[in-house]
What does this fold into?
Amino acid sequence: MFNDGRPMFEVIKDLEVTEATWYRWLNQYGGEKAESTKRTKELEKENAKLKKLLAD
It folds into this structure.
């Protein structure tokens, strides 16, 4: 993590996110590398488009 030695709650506060959001992100993306995270986001976008097409 890039917290410059500060307590994580201070970093979360600076990012203006809730602790719940932070832990959800950490749980969802914490173990992934940048390339894997990018692919996951691409798949989520594609899935959203397909769901919209199906709904129409």
Summary: The CA atoms of residues 17 and 29 lie 16 Å apart. The mean pLDDT is 84. The chain has one domain: 8-55. Helices lie at 8-15, 19-29, 34-55.
